[in-house]
Write a structure and sequence with these properties.
Elements lengths: L9 H20 L14 H13 L6 H17 L4 H17 L2 H26 L5 H10 L1 H70 L3 H29 L17 H11 L5 E7 L10 H21 L3 E10 L9 E9 L13 H12 L3 E9 L2 E11 L5
């Protein structure tokens, strides 16, 4: 396939036509710049005018070729008497070559113009040895150096403007990515809070409602309905608290959504009431030093939620037996001297005789997310115990500056 040059820009065509009409008018009026040299006919100036007008069509698509053609045309024009229109179009070709050429061309053309000006000043001065010959160098500088450096300034300005636009677009893109990431993180946090606050109550409701349907004992059914009602009320209270936090309100007495480890006794008591008769026995062991420093709020909230979710899983899946919740302080934790808070929850691992509540598997995901955000570690799975296999959840939460 033959190579085709791009179609000339409309403005370039208008510049070429205006140059032709202006040059013909000057030639018809006899307005020439200088007398002919070397006996060149004046009508050669019209040929040079048409050629350089055609070169104007290449000022954007092939600026180097256009400048080369224009250089030959302006040389012929000067020999035939010179037309101002031809010189003006030549200055435009120099400007366009710097403006639309490659970066290497934009660097070389101004230097070449300075070299040509220096030669046009030095050679006539050395040959004629007349001070007036300096005017030749000045005229050459006006028609070469001026448009070249004008093109450099305009090109640099446009490149800086394009870089600023690109930087602004990148900043806007980064801001949008940050916004999306923040929205995703907030949705994940809300999902964890909603799951951890409500899942335990709903699991107890599911277990005891199943038991109420299967048992024929009126007393056992009444007890199961009581547990269902109690967990329903607590679940509604937790939902109201979460909804209150999500609302945009400045109410000073709005409830807090950051439970502490001091509430673990209440949490275990709720688990005992939700457990089926003859089911699990929940025991809390706080082995931390009595004079230990207060925990960072994110660590305390994560530890509370991990215990809450572990108790919910024990109610749903664990067999009858003892469920141990242990809190310790590890001095050689992930943050050196600050250590780490270690949370361990062990529950019986085996077949459950009572009704089993359905699970979605998001509880462990939420726990891992909480621990990862704090830079800790989480292990969950079967492990050997004193009286057989147990299900153990162990979380180490750093207490240093990272928390």
């Amino acid at each position: 396939m033959p190579h085709r040059l791009p179609r000339p820009h409309r403005d370039d065509m208008l510049i070429g036509l205006a140059g032709v009409f202006g040059g013909v008018l000057l030639w018809a009026l006899g307005l020439h710049n200088n007398p002919p040299f070397f006996g060149t006919p004046r009508w050669f100036g019209l040929v040079a005018l048409v050629v350089i007008s055609g070169a104007e069509l290449l000022r954007r698509t092939a600026p180097v070729a256009g400048l080369g053609i224009g250089t030959v045309a302006v040389a012929v024009d000067l020999c035939s008497g010179g037309l101002a229109a031809t010189l003006l179009m030549y200055t435009d070709l120099i400007y366009a070559c710097v403006m639309y050429g490659t970066p290497a061309t934009a660097r070389r053309v101004p230097r070449l113009c300075v070299l040509v000006t220096a030669l046009a000043t030095a050679v006539p001065l050395a040959v004629l040895q007349e001070p007036e010959t300096l005017l030749i160098g000045m005229l050459v500088a006006v028609f070469t150096i001026s448009p070249a450096w004008t093109g450099v300034l305009v090109r640099n300005h446009r490149e800086e403007a394009a870089a600023e636009r690109l930087r602004a677009e990148q900043t806007a893109l980064l801001a949008e990515l940050d916004r999306r990431e923040a929205v995703t993180a907030e949705r994940a946090r809300m999902a964890r809070e909603l799951h951890d606050m409500v899942a335990g109550h709903l699991s107890a409701i599911a277990i005891h409602s199943t038991a109420a349907q299967s048992l024929k004992d009126p007393a056992a059914t009444e007890e199961a309905l009581g547990v269902i009602r109690e967990n329903s009320v607590r679940g509604l209270a937790e939902m109201r608290r979460l909804i209150g936090l999500l609302r945009d309100t400045r109410d000073a007495d709005r409830p807090s959504a950051a439970p502490t480890l001091d509430a673990l006794d209440t949490l275990l008591e709720q688990a005992r009431s939700a457990s089926s008769p003859g089911g699990q026995d929940f025991v809390l062991s706080d082995e931390r030093p009595p004079d230990s420093a207060p925990l960072p709020a994110p660590v305390e909230l994560a530890a509370y939620r991990i215990v809450q979710e572990s108790l919910t899983n024990a109610l749903k899946h664990a067999g009858p037996g003892r469920v141990d919740v242990t809190l310790t302080h590890s001095a050689d934790g992930a943050d050196g001297a600050d250590g780490a808070l270690e949370v361990r929850v062990t529950s019986p691992y085996g077949e459950r005789p009572a009704p089993r509540a359905p699970g979605s598997g998001t509880g462990l995901v939420g726990m891992r997310e909480r621990v990862t955000l704090l830079g800790g570690t989480l292990d969950a799975g079967p492990a050997p115990g004193p009286s057989g296999t147990v299900w153990r959840v162990r979380a180490a939460l750093p207490l240093g500056d990272g928390a």
